[in-house]
Amino acid sequence: MDPYVIIQYKGQERKSSAARGDGSSPSWNEKFTFKVEYPGSGGDYKLVLKIMDKDTFSSDDFVGQATIFVKDLLAVGADEGTAELHPTKHSVVNAEQRYCGEIVVGLTFTKKEENDEEEYGGWRESDY
C-alpha cells in the first residue's frame, strides 16, 4: 500500500506525498497552508482528509476519510492571533461509513496581519 492524503478546505485542495513502504502505519509529517477567512461566508469550517492508495496501472483507491471541524480553532486564532490544536487522533471511516483506522493531525492557525500601507509599485526603492 502506498497511501497519500488529499486535504480539502472550502474548495482548496492539497495533496501529500505517497508514504511508500510504511505498511499499515504511514507517516507523512508534512505541512500545508490554506487561505482561511473567519468569520467568512458559510459556516462549514472543516478540513476533510481523504486517504488514498496510489496505484501505478489503475486509478487510485479510496481508503477512508476523516473530518476535522476547525471553527473553534479559528475563533480563538482570530481573537488571540494564533491557536494550536496539538496532534490528535481522528477516526477514519471508509465508503460504508465504518471505522477503518485513525490519523493523527496537528493544526496551527496564525492570523495574517493586514498591511495598511499603500504599495507604490517599487517607487519607494527608486532613485530620482
Automatic annotation (TrEMBL):
InterPro entries: C2_dom, C2_domain_sf. Keywords: Calcium, Metal-binding. This is C2 domain-containing protein. It comes from Gossypium laxum. Residues 1-86 form the C2 domain. Pfam families: C2 (PF00168). It comes from the Eukaryota. GO terms for molecular function: metal ion binding.
